[in-house]
Write a structure and sequence with these properties.
alpha+beta; Ribosomal Protein S8, Chain: A, domain 1; 4-stranded mixed beta sheet; 3 helices; 20% strand
């Protein structure tokens, strides 16, 4: 018997982690403000779930050095605000029941600047 990992069988969890699941939709958040990205991510997940999609990709970008960012003031902070916040946004009350699992994407799908989102099946 396969061991379930957070409601997901071991084989499916491994396929998601390896980027081997079919990506049914993509959302690219490059250029969005934090507030716009938050709204867009919530709307995208809700729409994808209603459409019966199972695996989607959200591209946040990796963040990078900004001209107006003083790294000497807070050297451990990068400007990857969307990348840092997406997991929290998808864990919020309206999204939590829709999202089964979140994994950092493989390099061919954006690496650290993207996430695979596995949605729960519609019941």
């Amino acid at each position: 018997m396969k061991q379930a990992i957070g409601g997901l069988d071991k084989r499916s969890a491994e396929r998601l982690r390896r980027g081997q699941m079919n990506i049914e939709a993509r959302l690219d958040l490059h250029g969005h403000t934090q507030a716009d990205a938050h709204r867009a991510a919530h709307a995208f997940i809700a729409t994808s779930h209603r459409a019966g999609r199972r695996c989607v990709l959200i591209i946040t970008g990796k963040g990078g050095a900004r001209d107006d960012f003083d790294g000497s003031f807070m050297p451990d902070r990068d400007s990857g605000v969307l990348r840092r916040n997406l997991p929290r946004w998808l864990g919020e009350a309206p999204m939590r029941p829709l999202v089964l699992r979140l994994e950092t994407a493989r390099p061919q799908h954006g690496g650290d600047g993207a996430y695979y989102v596995l949605l729960r099946r519609k019941r």
